[in-house]
Design goal:
It is a single chain. This protein is α+β, with helices and mostly antiparallel strands and 565 residues long. It is built from 18 helices and 12 strands. Helix 15 (456-479) runs antiparallel to helix 16.
């Protein structure tokens, strides 16, 4: 086990390397933040050589980012149905089996897992929806988002999005993010309350033991910069104690060279989805980078148009220097006095002239609209703006929707595994730790679970599959007239379950496979019992009929002997 000084040296060295790596793209991230991210101050960061402060003048880029991020969120998350499914198909194939070989108990357990994860994510206390909406904005803007999945005993998973500008990441040899450093500030009194061992820092110990209440309270409110570190631990193993797990967690104060807490995780507690990671960089590239040139031009042009409108509304004037006693007062109702002896003109309108300095506003406005269209097209929200001609057809709207779905299909699967796959894995681990899923069936205990995207895009594809099942069922019914065994080709039970999944039916509307099998077996037993009862009744009737025949022959007198002769 490493001592505190060794831990601090390793974290400090790694932090400096990660900051240097991210600094290569800080200018890109800063420009995107200037033009697309929310702000209270609309001035942009100054660049060397700027003569005046630049400012944001157009709301089109940030509004486009919000709309585009909301669209991304709607394609990833479905609040009414599970949007990620557990799958053991690959593990079964590796073991030489098929999905149909999985027991009904195993299939039902995976179904409970699917809905259990969805229920925990959609819980208001988990914060998943709020956190994911914020993550969508930063992911779409910077190409990288960071979501932490914590665990509160008795409450389940907690989801929080870390601010991108306060995070540094690192990937492993497989290109997967396995290290996150998150820097934040907190008041000293909060640090001492959460980590009582923080008093080992000499400066903080002096503050905590200060006799003067006024001085102590003022000192306790000072801000402390902390670093939350999660990284792989050499030699860590799953299921071990906190300080021997595969992923190490540290809360440290680098300024004081102090480790406040050391813990561990069996799985990486961060989901870090990335869009289009660049060669040689651990960070992705967001849609805003592609729209940035037009966004900057739009902001500059917007300011120029506003200046031109100002010149049109209140143009500068030209007049003789000594005509008025002071500057011209343009307020409504203001009185301006002039010396008529100095007029020298036929009337005052000849003396005061307007200066036309605006240029052609029509050209600027036309280009302004073109830039807006470019920004919205780059942010994939141009389809939200329908044509103004008034003859937009339903077919055109469907085509736009299908086109958008096709475009989003290129983005969503690329981030889903690093986002929803990791989040689902952590959530399932927490559910198992809480005991919410019950015992794992025997045929699932040695199988690795994969996570398949099942959001709105996949649901649209499943609906097409359900329509195909309907068509195949109709064809099987037609073929039954020629071959009574034709419908046996279809697995009706699983086909109906697939249709129910495509329609998004909630949990509880379908009986479990084990329950259905029990009902099938009970029905088969009832049918067999009914068949046996019918056979017994038929046998009894035959015996009765035979006895009646013998009695009739006996009543005929001598008939039996005659027949025997």
């Amino acid at each position: 086990m490493r001592d505190e000084a060794t831990i601090i040296r390793g974290i400090d060295r790694a932090f400096e390397d990660m900051k240097a790596h991210k600094a290569l793209r800080e200018d890109e991230f800063q420009q995107i933040a200037d033009y697309f991210m929310p702000r209270k101050d609309f001035s942009c960061a100054n660049r060397p050589g700027d003569l005046r402060r630049r400012r944001l003048t157009s709301s089109v880029p940030p509004v486009s980012l919000r709309n585009s991020a909301a669209m991304l969120f709607s394609y990833v998350v479905d609040p009414t149905n599970p949007f990620i499914n557990p799958s053991v198909e690959n593990s079964l194939m590796a073991a030489g089996y098929e999905m149909l070989d999985l027991s009904r108990e195993g299939s039902d357990w995976l179904e409970r897992l699917r809905w259990g994860i969805h229920g925990r994510m959609m819980s208001a206390r988990s914060g998943f929806a709020t956190s994911s909406a914020r993550l969508s904005v930063e992911l779409w803007a910077f190409g990288t988002g960071v979501q932490w999945v914590g665990h509160k005993r008795g409450q389940g998973p907690i989801y929080q999005t870390r601010p991108f500008q306060s995070c540094w990441i690192r990937t492993n040899g497989d290109g997967l993010v396995d290290t996150v450093y998150y820097q934040f500030t907190a008041p000293l009194y909060w640090v001492l309350e959460r980590w009582p061992e923080a008093t080992k820092v000499e400066d903080w110990q002096k503050i905590a033991s200060e006799i003067d209440d006024t001085k102590r309270e003022a000192a306790l409110r000072q801000s402390v910069t902390l670093l939350h570190v999660v990284e792989p631990r050499m030699g860590g193993e799953r299921g071990r104690v906190q300080r021997q797990k595969p992923f190490a967690e540290y809360y440290v104060c680098l300024d004081k060279k102090a480790v406040l807490e050391e813990r561990g995780y069996d799985s990486f507690p961060y989901a870090v989805p990335r869009l289009e990671p660049e060669q040689g960089s651990d960070y992705g590239t967001g849609r805003c980078w592609h729209a940035l040139p037009d966004a900057k031009a739009l902001s500059i042009l917007q300011q120029a148009i506003e200046n031109g409108v100002d010149l049109k509304v209140a143009p500068p004037t030209m007049m003789p220097k000594k005509l008025f006693g002071g500057p011209l007062d343009r307020r409504p109702g203001a009185a301006n006095y002039f010396d008529p002896t100095r007029l020298g003109f036929m009337n005052l309108s000849d003396a005061v002239k307007r200066l036309e300095l605006t240029g052609d506003l029509g050209v600027g406005q036309a280009y302004h609209q073109e830039l807006i269209q470019r920004v919205e097209a780059a942010m994939l929200v141009d389809w939200m703006r329908l044509r103004d001609s008034g003859n937009v057809t339903a077919e055109e709207i469907r085509e736009r929707r299908n086109l958008r779905i096709s475009v989003m299909s290129a983005h969503v699967p690329g981030i889903d595994r690093d986002w929803m796959g990791v989040v689902a894995e952590r959530t399932a681990e927490i559910l198992l730790a809480e005991g919410d899923l019950g015992p794992v069936p025997a045929d699932l205990r040695n199988l690795d679970v994969d996570w398949d995207y099942a959001g709105p895009l996949a649901q649209a594809q499943r609906q097409r599959q359900a329509e195909g099942f309907d068509r195949m069922f109709a064809r099987a019914m037609q073929a039954r007239e020629l071959d009574p065994a034709a419908p046996f080709v279809l697995n009706l039970a699983e086909g109906l379950r697939a249709c129910a999944d495509a329609e998004g039916l909630p949990l509880g509307t379908l009986r479990s496979r084990a329950e259905v099998q029990a009902m099938v077996e009970a029905e088969a037993e009832r049918a067999q019992a009914a068949e046996e009862r019918q056979a017994a009744m038929d046998g009894a009737a035959a015996l009765r009929d035979g006895a009646q025949g013998v009695a009739s022959l006996a009543n005929m007198g001598g008939a039996p002997e005659a027949m025997a002769a």
